[in-house]
Amino acid sequence: MVKLRSSAYAWLLLLVSMPVLAGRSGEPVQPIQPPKEINLALADLGKKLYFDPRLSRSGFISCNSCHNLSMGGTDNLKTSIGDHWAQGPINAPTVLNSSLNIAQFWDGRAKDLKAQAGGPIANPGEMAFTHPLAVSTLETIPGYVREFALAFGDDTIDIDRVTSALAEFEKTLVTPDAPFDRWLLGDDAAVSDMALNGYRLFKESGCVGCHNGAALGGTSFQKMGVVEPYVTQNPSLGVAGLTGADADRFRFKVPTLRNIELTYPYFHDGEAQTLTEAVDVMGRLQLGRRFTAAENQSIVAFLKTLTGAQPAFILPQLPPSVDATPRPEPFQR
């Protein structure tokens, strides 16, 4: 058995040791549960890879650049910044609780976290590397060779193992113990009367039809602009970009509402800068409901109770490059 540093995964060990509790009977929302069956050696390797900019062509961009774990698992930009300051096509979804998603990316083109993990590395507008080059770079770093041997039993490094490790780490990025979770588990004093009124409006207005379950989203694809059309300059077509079907135009994966106060701006195009604006737009376009200022304020109060305990761990010490490791050329086109 691989023995890890006791402090490296104190956060994860705390989560795993938490009791599994049931939510209030009949509620369409359930508490976040701790991750199960985590391979700690693999997750520890994945944590290093997540923070390592050497998986990018510039040697400057890591997974954490767009999915910053100090900022709710996103970058708080309308669209992300990629290689050579390239403007990304879509708002970066949070990585927190992403293991609860039915699929990954706004259009669901990756079936799981492992399938998603390899995409940004080879995307010319994001990390702008290739899988073979990323692997060959890791192969020159003795520390990584040892890490892969510890995690997999031999020192072979390939993109399948890289993405497996990244996915295992991302599975640990859950955020339990939100005030609303505590209310679901029976703590009547965990949320305010205003927030509870917001939750009542959230259910009665129909928001819960799409935003339900433990993640309050992430489990279905819905059209943006049901009652009124959504007007945007963003070129993303949603699922239609994959299927070519007009019926899939502007169908996007429903985003999670967990930690929503941290993951601004909102929507696939990042056009809603505040929760107040997002609630107003979604009420009108999706539900045909114009919330009053007081109703909007109550719903926002409820949404803020969904901020859970954020991942906390010691930042990884990355294995150093050696003479044989290719040096990044961030200014080369």
Which keywords apply here?
Cytochrome Bc1 Complex, Chain D, domain 2; disordered N terminus; 333 residues; 12 helices; 2% strand; two-stranded antiparallel ribbon; mainly alpha
Largest sheet: 2 strands, antiparallel
Given the helix and strand composition, which structural class is it?
A: mainly alpha
The H-and-E topology, N to C, reads as HHHHHHHHHEHEHH
Whole-number radius of gyration? 21 Å
Average pLDDT: 93
Structure, briefly:
With 333 residues, this protein is mainly alpha-helical.
Task: Explain the overall architecture.
By secondary structure, this protein is mainly alpha-helical. It folds into two domains: 40-171, Cytochrome Bc1 Complex, Chain D, domain 2; 179-306, Orthogonal Bundle (Cytochrome Bc1 Complex, Chain D, domain 2), CATH 1.10.760.10. Helices cover 34% and strands 2% of the residues. The chain has helices spanning 10-17, 40-51, 63-66, 113-122, 131-139, 142-152, 159-171, 179-184, 193-204, 240-243, 275-287, 293-304; strands at 221-223, 251-253. It has a two-stranded antiparallel ribbon.
